[in-house]
Amino acid sequence: MGCDRGDDRQPRPPPEVVLILPSAPWRDRDGLAALTKVLGAAEGESRFVGGAVRDTLLGIDVADVDIATRLPPQEVIERLQDARIKAVPTGLAHGTITAVTAAGPVEVTTLRRDVSTDGRHAIIAYTDDWREDAARRDFTMNALYADPATGEIFDYFGGLDDLAARRVRFIGDPLQRIAEDHLRILRFFRFHARFGTIIDKAGLDACTARANDLMALSRERIASEVLKLLVAANAVPVVALMVERGIFRAVLPEIDAAGAERLALLADREAAAGIAPDPIRRLAMTIAPAAAEAVGARLKLSNTDRKRLIAATAGPGEEGPQALAYRAGTAGAIDRLLIAGDDVAAIKDWTPPAFPFSGGALVERGLRKGPDVAAMLRRVETQWIVEGFPDAARVAVIADEMVAETLN
Q: So what's the pLDDT on residue 407?
């Protein structure tokens, strides 16, 4: 029965009820039907799983499509190769093959069960039991499967009811699930910030009790989850709750109650300005400016993101928004203006122009090549900025006047 509910606490639908996945644009992606046919979907060998099913039921646009299959990885590879579909063994040790379709990559993973876990890594064994595969997933709403041909939904742990209630709930015992993978602590809050209304008390208490387990995780994994969390729809109240519960204390003590309040201010400013939330900007607002360099290094952010994190709280400058956008880049200028509480209207839809002059033009005007040219070029550019980025003809006049003054 497609709507099998393995959790006795959840109501079972009448036997004749079969829930069907609604139609959605992603289901018509080029190459997807051919892929599911190759993987034996018609014979019950493969199903859509996870986010694509969840988000379709919520009416959210789907980005990534994942397929779970009873087929062993080597057979998946062979079938794809026979069908001339490119197969990339992206996670072969864990049963994942990436099938490259005309519309993009699709991850195909053989059904699995955990043999042992240590909070960071799992040793798995393959299975042909859909319920076993569902049981190793984190939350009930992420353990929903759908038949590619009929759209029939398979729900083994009450995910449909939790989805309807907008409740993020661990499958089984929350403490056990966290022991299997400590990252689930941050995922619990991130998914609640994205989908939840009333938080699941058992999950919240388990995350609170095991928050120190986050210390065992790589900083890259922590960074990935935190940055996604910061831009979720309900990030503001969820971050405040995480601070209250001491979730960040072990790995990001810089995020405190004052930081949660600053995040709320920034979120209001972004909304008022019509600017999309940005994770680096929000992280910069949430931590104290003096901590930016240390936090960026600890989270192993890219050099670009570290520099942006440090610069975000440098203030609006004295030359005006467009001058700031020209010198710091539009993204950096928006960061600094929003964090400072200044207006971003002047640069929201503005593209900084290219400086319409060169050092060669100064040499043609009689300056000797070398440091003098570079210094003069900076002077001309500064005046160009002060005058509001006039056209090339005006820049030429500025240059003529400055060169004449220097040579005379």
A: 84
What does the block give as tokens for 239? 């971050």
Residue from 89, 95, 88, 98 nearest 72 by CA: 95
Q: Are 122 and 112 in contact (CB under 8 A)?
A: no
Dihedral sign, Cα of residue 141, residue 8, residue 178, residue 93: negative
Is residue 113 within 8 Å of residue 41, measured between CB atoms?
no
pTM for the structure as a whole: 0.88
As a residue count, the chain comes to 408
Residue 289 phi/psi, 5-degree rounding, is -55, -40
Edge-first strand listing for the sheet containing 86-91:
86-91, 96-101, 104-110, 66-69, 46-49, 144-146, 153-155
Cβ partners under 8 Å of residue 22, min gap 6? 56, 57, 151
* Burial bucket for residue 297 (CB in 10 Å: 0-12, 13-18, 19+): exposed
Band of residue 94 on the pLDDT scale cut at 50, 70, 90: confident
Cβ-contact 38, 71 below 8 angstroms: no
Alpha helices (runs of H) in 11-138, residue ranges in sequence order: 32-38, 51-58, 73-82, 130-135
Taking the C-alpha atoms of residue 257 and residue 398, their distance in angstroms, rounded to an integer, is: 52
Distance of CA 311 to CAs 161, 241, 259, 281, 332, Å?
Answer: 45, 28, 17, 10, 7
Count of alpha carbons within 13 angstroms of residue 144, beta-carbon side: 27
